[in-house]
Amino acid sequence: MLIQPRGPKIRHSSTDTPPFFKELMLNKTNPTERDKAMLTATIEHSANTTAGETPLTDGFHLVIDALKANDIDTIFGLVGIPITDLARLAQAEGMRFIGFRHEQHAGNAAAIAGYMTQKPGICLTVSAPGFLNGLTALANATTNCFPMILISGSSEREIVDLQQGDYEEMDQLNAAKPYAKASYRINKAEDIAIGVARAIRAAVSGRPGGVYLDLPAQLLGQSIPAQKGKESLFRVIDAAPKQIPAPDAVKRAIDVLKSAKRPLILLGKGAAYAQADQEIKDLVEKSGIPSADVDGQRIITRHTSAMRICCPLIRIIRCRYRHADRRSLELALGPW
């Protein structure tokens, strides 16, 4: 797991070597060639912002800025080429990175975080094998309607498309499509913000689900003017607007419910996602209608003035079919 670095945040236009990289080099007794190259590239990046030159930013920072612009502050994942530096810089910019030993677990954690917060959970993986490990969690998020975005590094498109044998060569975008609500690939640095915004909206709008975002390695190293990068940022406004049913539809449902002899309320995970616990509790208590929480593995029934838990999920299924001929109406709330 990566450790949150101490010290000031990295600034794109700073002319000094970022403190995070200085600390990285000082704390390493035997810096690797990759560490040295990373420090050299950072110094060169800072040198581009000297007097008379246009300040630049790169794909790494644009991905981070796009996530932060949409109030996403946590990433789950497992680092490696080509996204190691992305995770390091995200930490340096104040984001929280939670590392795992396997991408599937990171993806499941991101999906659950998305379900609990109503913001898409972010899972970050390397290309090919790391992507495939995260794909299992992506499929689970899509099936169970958990808002989650799987972000994976990938090999160069030109080599992959011609099957010339690139590092961890794989057509990840098409591999993810059957298991995701939506899949996007970003090829230009100036399109990073709109790509992240589209992924966020797709993950939480309508029926929530998993979204795949493909980031080729060369995209992260692309540089554009910092001002242009700032202007490209998008903040998704009202990604999942509340949908109020028509008054006549509500009245019709109430009339049907009133005329039912043996109604039953079924609560799905959509009811929990809406965080309408108190409203549902009031409905059950005031109406006296038995309710089955099919995702919470319990059934709630009314007994005098109190509600009590009377049987686990397996008995709910049996109960539903055993009394099917005696039940006249089934009211489903949040039936994902």
Features:
Rossmann fold; single chain; disordered N terminus; 15 helices; 2 domains; alpha/beta; 336 residues
SS summary, helix count: 15
Share of helical residues: 40-55%
Helix and strand run: HHEHEHEHEHEHHEHEHEHHEHHEEEHE
Q: Approximately what portion of the residues adopt beta-strand conformation? A: 15-25%
Average of pLDDT: 81
Q: Give the termini distance in whole angstroms.
A: 34 Å
How many beta-strand segments?
A: 13
Number of domains: 2
Given helix and strand content, the structural type is alpha/beta
Architecture overview:
The protein is α/β, with parallel strands linked by helices and 336 residues long. It folds into 2 domains: 54-231, Rossmann fold, CATH 3.40.50; 247-333, no CATH class. It has 15 helices and 13 strands. The strands form 3 sheets. Strands 3-2-4-5-7-6 form a 6-stranded parallel beta sheet, with helices on both faces. Strands 12-11-10-9-13 form a 5-stranded mixed beta sheet. Strands 1-8 form a two-stranded antiparallel sheet. The two termini are 34 Å apart. The model is unreliable at 1-27 and 297-318 (pLDDT under 50).
